[in-house]
Amino acid sequence: MSSSDTVPATGLSTGLSLRAVGAGLLAALVGYASSVAVVIHGLTAVGAGTEQVVSGLVLVGLAMGVTAMGLSLHRRKPISIAWTTPGMALLAATGAVEGGFAAAVGAFVVTGVLIVLAGLWAPLGRWIAAIPKPLANGMLAGILLKLCLAPFLAVSQAPGMALLVLATWALVGRVARLYAVPAAVAVALGAMALDSSGGLAGGLAGGAALSGALWPSVTFVQPVFTWEAMVGIALPLFVVTMASQNIPGLAVLATYNYAPPTRPIFLATGAASALTALGGAPTVNLAAITAALCASPDADPNPARRWQAAFVGGIGYILFAGLAGVTAVMVTRSPPILIEAVAGLALVGAFGSALMGAVQVEANRTAALVTMLVTASGLSFAGVGSAFWGLLLGGAVHLLYWRPSVSQPAK
What would the pLDDT profile of 382-395 be if each residue is shown by its tens digit? Predict the structure, then answer.
């Protein structure tokens, strides 16, 4: 039995851990600042306007916060929740679909329903887990490749801002890698704020916009369900969320001897995703990277109190939801290439891990590379995006090259 399973059910009796509180706030800060530009870029790529982006950020912050607080408090385990950063990169790579943002919202709703079904019907979750890891990693690497090139392409279009952001990322990463992306985001946001002011007239307009954004609102989006959005967004988004977020998130928890049941996690995150999608919010899921901040001994030496870190992290995300308007206005009023640059820096680590996972096993390397290259190509056929075709063609090559293992006869 793991140490996390031996703690008493009354986790509140263990007392408040200030270290856990600090770890939870840090996890929320790092999780939000490191990838909010990716989320905004993904939403705008599929047709969301500024008001819809604000609405999506408000609701996704609430969804992450409420589910993290509820699950960690109920299970007394550090169950951290995050938005699907790889999924938002998928949206950025896919672009607008027929039906506009309403069709993308319909795909978000279906993705949430599929996650609920994965919790209710075990075979669905097993099918996702059965996708060869090199192919799943190849698809993710292909999705992330274009975004990860953006920071360096930005140098030719906005050299001053881009070089400043790159230098901040590199120098801070040399000292404290965990803070490299948040520091780069902070510098980029400062540059965006200065750029959007554009003198006295621009400053007054920007100030008025930011003042109005201090009170973010929620906008209902009537979902539209189209075949193109279902196959081009919903299905790849579900696969990416499960394979690149939920499964790694469970693996991180297992590393620290936590094994929460998956059904309540999938039911809660899927239902929250489907509900908040009606306001333009992207999918939420188990956190992977920031989960380690809440589940490791750094959060608290006592495993029985680390759930408090995930609980406080949820509070942090709810607080950040209040800043959705300011964040969205500053980012969307800035040069698109700079937004892509910041998003790309946030995804460099994920791209490296995905690429390593794709090519590590030589027997699967060709199929994984086909998956990555087709996905990165931007191929679109019959209204379906490249992520689906990459997985399909890579799977065909995998089956073509697959050889059943033959056990050696006993001597």
Answer: 555 677 788 889 98
Within a domain: 76: yes
Please list the residues that pair with 384 across neighbouring strands: 381
Please, what's the b/e burial string for 88-108 (b: 16 or more CB within 10 A of its CB; e: otherwise)?
bbbbbbbeebebbbbbbbbbb
83 phi, psi to nearest 5 deg: -80, 165
Which structural domain range is residue 390 located in?
A: 18-156+213-401
**Maximum C-alpha span of the chain:** 87
Say how far residue 397 (Cα) sits from the centre of its chain.
28
> One-letter amino acid identity for 305?
R
Read off the pLDDT of residues 294-323 as tens digits, 9 standing for 90 and up. 888 878 889 999 999 999 999 999 998 888
Question: How many structural domains comprise the chain?
Answer: 1
Q: Is 264 left (phi over 0), alpha (psi -120 to 50) or beta?
A: alpha
Closest-CA residue to 240 (of 339, 141, 317): 141
Helices and strands (H and E) in the chain: how many: 19, 2
Q: Does residue 411 lie within any of the structural domains?
A: no
Binned at pLDDT 50, 70 and 90, residue 343 comes out as: low
Tell whether pTM > 0.85: no
Separation CA 257–CA 245 (nearest Å): 18
